[in-house]
Design a protein that fits this description.
Blueprint (H helix, E strand, L loop, with lengths): L1 E12 L9 E6 L2 H12 L3 E6 L16 E13 L3 E19 L4 E8 L8 H22 L4 H8 L4 H11 L4 H9 L3 H53 L3 H15 L4 H15 L6 H15 L12 H11 L4 H17 L6 E5 L6 H12 L3 E5 L7 H4 L12 H9 L5 E5 L6 E2 L2 E2 H8 L8 E2 L6 E2 L5 E6 L7 H4 L3 E4 L5 H19 L7 E3 L1 H10 L7 H20 L5 E3 L4 H5 L14 E2 L1 E8 L2 E13 L4 E4 L4 H16 L10 H4 E6 L13 H13 L2 E2 L3 E3 L2 E2 L5 E2 L4 H10 L4 E5 L3 H5 L3 H4 L3 E5 L2 H8 L3
Parallel strand pairs: 1-3, 7-14, 7-15, 8-9, 9-14, 16-17, 19-24, 21-22, 24-27, 27-28
Antiparallel strand pairs: 1-6, 2-5, 3-4, 4-5, 5-6, 10-11, 12-13, 18-23, 19-20, 20-22, 25-26
Subunit structure: Homohexamer. Organized in a ring with a central cavity.
Catalytic activity: Hydrolysis of proteins in presence of ATP
EC number: 3.4.21.53
């Protein structure tokens, strides 16, 4: 509730707000403000001070003034030259501006005061507000340094919350807009909230200002020191008659004369050397230009290595370095043969795609050795900045050439073998798309004029033999994939792993661990057990780690116990490697109802899936469990739809699907399963459970099902057949459209497996169900 209205002479303040308890002086220049002071002095020296919203306005009206002002007593009036009055006032109380009774010859304001805040505040709340304001004011004093210690101490000793808020508001240095916010806060709680927010903001601004000042001072000091040192160095050189820039430029000239490059490149470097020579050595650009010239001089523009044309030697190196990988070796030999016939020609761009540990990176090294080429490797995993490939513009601080240019610099020749490792792991962000930058590098029609942003001179990459590696072909953008010749490297069989271990991994680990020849023997049976039960992978990286583990333990046996020789066999293998890590899900011993064996492809090779189905009374629901992906859930839905469409052929009553629930489960649910290849397996298991016919335990299958029961082709067939062989499966059902893939699989894998080709679910059920 407001106090009764009183009429007082008023002054509209410009850019100033007066708060209660504030004693302050201000200058008055406007005529009607002077007359308002005279009228107040003739009455009781009371005057109403209200701030105008726009400080530039000369004659403000009621709408141009804030709604809350301060009633003040005039303490002193002093006349100054140029028709100015200096007035000393003391703020008494805040009041609301109700209206203006007159505007000429001076403002007479209708005001109403605010009653004291009658709200009852809990003692704990008052204490919390008191401590908060006190702490904020203390921090403000430390940060600003503008309030004297005596005044700060006096304010900090105030015990009353209202008085503390009033004194802090009056003594901090803030804008008149913030002062107006404090003035318009009527209740104690409002005053606390506004003042606390203002103090917090002021403290933050002051802290940021201090940080900027410290950084600026440090930078200025550093620049000043460097300037003085440079000037001293310059003076010393002048006194000694030395000119370092001229010597460096002459050194560059000598390198340029020996450089094997085109006239265009030499002219460009010569021009940059002239610029460098005429430049002051203390200039910041001098070091940038020097680095640029050195980069151009280090690049192998027309310098090439002699490729080997000895086909027999090349084949020998490839055979000795790697077991298997027949397709890769044959493709390299084809390239060599064409190269020998044409005495040149464009180098192919190969992309080796396969699971981890299958020898993609090491085959590239062997190819370089076979061709007598320099070998450089660029790892693209996680690269997401286009400048990593194309380089940075010279104008940027810290600019550097791209990885392709740096690799050529390291190779020292313009025709190395360049391995682009993990090309499927590149990504993009706001700085550009890495895969798009690689399009120019890997396009035989464009890479003869590759432009690095840093070098600014076209480079010929057509002589570079690019080999890329990837784990998953899906991760390579389609335009980039179109420019490469893809060679798929699938997982190794147990027999291949055994050969690789005997011929490569064991000798390598014996040498790495310093074990003399003949001191450690790993028996073939132990090696096969290690491959089957201790590793589960498409490659041999994990197998190499296990062999290394055996070597380390054997080394300890030889050194600590003084053993003459260590022999690892199937009986003591767990002593070296601990308990076996994996166990293959072997074929079931007997035929069962509602259990079918599927085949799946994973990142580490193939695996078998045992799909179990139960039928129970219910409401016709289909329940799917086992951490299935969306694709496998859709396959299950398609399977049940197919079964319902042919229910009459198997004497299944129509009401069966409304009165029973079907639960499909794939054990080992911790392993995520997704992919279009388990449709026929789930349909077979579901139909078996519904009609009560057993599924053959020695049959596994792979293929996707359609609503009409057609069987669609799948991928990863080699890995799936390997998994079937490990599980001792005798017969595998494969989509007929995958027949051509079977023809490309080694006889070693197919040995002992009966492959049956199927077109539709009738054929699947004919082979899978027990007759």
């Amino acid at each position: 509730m407001k106090q009764p209205i009183s009429i007082l002479p008023a002054i509209a303040l410009r850019g100033t707000t007066i708060l209660p308890d504030m004693i302050v002086h201000f200058d008055v220049s406007r005529e009607r403000s002077m007359k308002a002071i005279e009228a107040a002095m003739l009455q009781d020296e009371k005057i109403f001070l209200v701030t105008q919203k726009d400080p530039e306005m000369e004659t403000p009206g009621i709408t141009d003034l804030y709604k809350v002002g301060t009633v003040a007593y005039i303490k002193q009036v002093v006349k100054l030259p140029h028709d100015l009055l200096r007035v000393l006032v003391e703020g008494v109380e805040r009041a609301e501006l109700i209206g203006l009774e007159q505007e000429e010859p001076f403002l007479m304001a209708e005001t109403a005061g605010f009653e004291a805040d009658g709200a009852h505040y809990a003692k704990s709340l008052r204490e919390a507000m008191y401590r908060s304001i006190r702490e904020l004011f203390q921090r403000y004093c430390i940060e600003s340094g503008r309030i004297s210690k005596d005044l700060a101490a006096k304010i900090m000793n105030i015990q009353n919350l209202e008085e503390l808020i009033s004194q802090v508001s009056v003594n901090i240095q803030i804008t008149y807009q913030n002062q107006q916010k404090i003035l318009e806060a009527v209740t104690l709680e409002e005053q606390y909230e506004v003042l606390a927010a203002i103090l917090n903001n002021e403290i933050e601004v002051l802290q940021i200002g201090h940080d900027l000042q410290h950084k600026l001072k440090a930078r200025v000091d550093k620049n000043q020191r460097e300037y003085i040192l440079r000037e001293q160095l310059k003076l010393i050189r002048e006194e000694l008659g030395e000119d370092n820039t001229a010597d460096t430029a002459q050194e560059y000239r000598e390198k340029l004369e020996k450089l094997q490059a085109s006239k265009e490149v030499k002219d460009k470097i010569s021009k940059e050397i002239d610029r460098f020579k005429s430049m002051n050595s203390s200039a910041a650009e001098s070091s940038v230009l020097s680095t640029y010239i050195e980069t151009l001089l280090d690049l192998p523009w027309d310098k090439k290595s002699e490729d080997s044309m000895d086909l027999a030697e090349a084949w020998k190196i490839l055979e000795e370095g790697h077991y298997g990988l027949k397709e890769v070796k044959e493709r390299i030999m084809e390239f060599l043969s064409v190269r020998k016939l044409t005495s040149g020609g464009k180098s192919p761009i190969l992309c080796l795609v396969g699971p981890p540990g299958t020898g993609k990176t090491s085959i590239a090294h062997s190819v370089a050795e076979a061709l007598h080429k320099k070998y450089v490797r660029i790892c693209l995993g996680g690269v997401r900045d286009e400048a990593e490939i194309r380089g940075h513009r010279k104008t940027y601080v810290g600019a550097m050439p791209g990885r392709i240019t740096v690799a050529l610099q390291q190779a020292g020749v313009s025709n190395p073998l360049m391995l682009l490792d993990e090309i499927d792991k590149t990504s993009s962000d706001y700085k550009g798309d890495t895969s798009s930058a690689l399009l120019e590098v890997l396009d035989p029609e464009q890479n003869s004029h590759f432009n690095d942003h840093y070098v600014e001179v076209s480079q010929d990459l057509s002589e570079v033999l690019f080999i890329a590696t990837a784990n998953d072909i899906q991760g390579i953008p389609r335009p980039l994939l179109d420019r490469m010749e893809v060679i798929e490297i699938s997982g190794y069989t147990e027999n291949e792993k055994e050969h690789i271990a005997k011929e490569h991994l064991i000798p390598k680990q014996l040498e790495v661990n310093g074990i003399p020849k003949g001191k450690l023997t790993i028996q073939p049976a132990a090696l096969r057990k290690m491959i089957t039960l201790y590793t589960r992978e498409a490659g041999v990286r994990g197998l190499e780690r296990k062999i290394g583990q055996i070597c380390r333990k054997a080394a300890r046996e030889l050194m600590e116990n003084g053993a003459d020789k260590v022999v690892v066999n199937t009986k003591n293998l767990d002593k070296f490697l601990g308990k076996s890590t994996y166990s293959y899900l072997m074929a079931n011993k007997k035929d069962e109802v509602g259990i079918a064996r599927g085949l799946a492809w994973t990142q580490v090779g193939g695996d078998t899936l045992q799909i179990e189905v139960n039928v129970m009374p219910g409401k016709g629901e289909l329940v799917l469990t086992g951490q299935l992906g969306d694709v496998m859930k859709e396959s299950a839905m398609a399977g049940i739809s197919y079964i319902r469409s042919v229910a009459d052929q198997y004497d299944i009553k129509p009401e069966f699907f409304q009165e029973n629930d079907i639960h499909v489960h794939i054990p080992e649910g911790a392993v995520p399963k997704d992919g279009p290849s388990a449709g026929i397996t789930m349909a077979t298991a579901m139909l078996s459970a519904i009609i009560g016919k057993e599924v053959r335990a020695d049959v596994a299958m792979t293929g996707e099902i359609t609503l009409r029961g057609r069987v669609l082709p799948i991928g990863g067939l080699k890995e799936k057949l390997l998994a079937a062989k490990y599980a001792r499966i005798k017969q595998v059902l494969v989509p007929r459209e995958n027949k051509q893939d079977i023809q490309e699989i080694d006889a070693e894998i197919l040995d002992g497996l009966k492959i049956s080709y199927v077109d539709n679910m009738k054929e699947v059920l004919h082979e899978a169900l027990v007759k």
